[in-house]
Amino acid sequence: GIVDLNWQILARVTFDEQYNEELDQYIPYPIFSPTVRALEGKEVYMEGYYIPVDESGDAEMLILSAFPFSACFFCGNAGPESVMDIQLKKSAKLDFKTDDRITFKGTLKLNDTDLYYLNYILTDAQLVKE
């Protein structure tokens, strides 16, 4: 069946600071726990807060957060394990407002190499409930 994933499970990650030549700085690379690694490629449900990617409100790229905007990874003191890239299955226009609590179903992908994406990615995502 579909795994009911939550932010407490995704928090089971540590980070190793490594120098990145391209960015000329130290970057925290994730080391996923065996529990999290076992979920890679599985179909999951994930609930969180909608965080806008830019001011245009373009909903084609979505970020889901464990915390509301004021306390999220981008604006607050939360870590990178508290946000997830949502890659929609269809390019349907979804109309969300900042901090809307939403649930998606999709396939979990772990990212520990590509700095242009978050550590957690939900691919083929479909909206389950707003």
Question: How would you portray this structure in words?
Answer:
- It is a single chain.
- The protein has 130 residues and is mainly β.
- The chain is built from two helices and eight strands.
- The strands form two sheets. It has a five-stranded mixed beta barrel with strand order 4-5-6-8-7. The protein has a two-stranded antiparallel ribbon with strand order 2-3.
- A hairpin with a 4-residue loop joins β2 (13-20) and β3 (25-32).
- The mean pLDDT is 89.
Write the layout of secondary structure elements.
Layout: E1 3-4, H1 7-10, E2 13-20, E3 25-32, H2 34-37, E4 43-51, E5 62-65, E6 83-88, E7 101-110, E8 120-129
Parallel strand pairs: 1-4, 6-8
Antiparallel strand pairs: 2-3, 4-5, 4-7, 5-6, 7-8
Features:
130 residues, mainly beta, 5-stranded mixed β-barrel, two-stranded antiparallel sheet, 8 strands, 44% strand
Amount of helix:
under 10%
Shape: globular
What integer is the average pLDDT? 89
Number of strands: 8
Uncertain segments are none
Largest sheet: 5 strands, mixed, barrel
Structural class by secondary-structure content: mainly beta
Q: What is the H/E string?
A: EHEEHEEEEE
* Termini separation: 22 Å
Radius of gyration: 14 Å
List the strand order in the largest sheet: 4-5-6-8-7
Number of helices: 2
Measured by DSSP, the beta-strand proportion falls in 35-45%
Short description:
This protein is mainly beta and about 130 residues long. It has helices at about 5-10, 35; strands at about 5, 15-20, 25-30, 45-50, 60-65, 85-90, 100-110, 120-130. The chain has two helices and eight strands; from the N terminus they run βαββαβββββ.
